[in-house]
Amino acid sequence: MLNDALFYLSKAFWAVARPNTLALVLAVLGMALLWRGRRWGRWPALLGLGWFVAIAATPLATWLTWPLEDRFARPAEPPARVDGVVVLGGAVDVELTAARGLPALNGAAERMTEAVALSRRYPQARILFTGGAPNPLGGELTESGAARLIFEGLGLSGPRVLYETTARNTHENAVASLALARPQPGETWLLITSASHMPRSMGVFRRAGWTGIVAWPVNYSTGTTSMSAFDTPFGQRLSQAEWALREFTGLVAYRLLGRTDALFPAP
Which residues cross the membrane (predicted)? Predict the structure, then answer.
């Protein structure tokens, strides 16, 4: 019951606290107040418009994302032996897949393609995809169901491929996949997720009791210089900044809930 309540509360909170949405509301509210002669309306207007100007005129989105994406790097040398690979959901567009009947991927598609590549590099490794219904209202198709369509279409099938179908967030990913995989002492498992999501993911998996879990980040969204940020379209930079702030918010919330082993997990 507590997990359910926290899940719905987190969805409701982010629906109103998303930086881009909040900035737009503040800008519109401030402009409306100024139009009605309320001079104090300039403050919400400046805050709201200031957010969009900062994203457009500076590499703010990159600066926010760098600490997350650079926190965990892949091993300098790939492990000689890998017993399993855990793939976090988030790369599959479940609603579009269900609507069109064809597997649909989003901007985190590298989570899926990297899993297939690793399955070929380590043919003895188990591949575990974890992801339930991402929509709070539920649905017939889960992320794992859509992932199965993609993996089997790419030739990845058989008993070594496991699908965890209930997890709705990163904490549930870690707990449910641990129960399904039952990794043994001394085994090495790779964790695939977006680089910006890796700090929270590693903290959660460690806290859940995973040992021998190794970060394998994919889906980088930043370059190595601040100037590279200006090559990214404005809309994408808005999404990037919002995602980074969401991750920092999630890190704080998960630490307060005791779901991670540190406020900002490190290698």
Answer: 12-34, 46-66
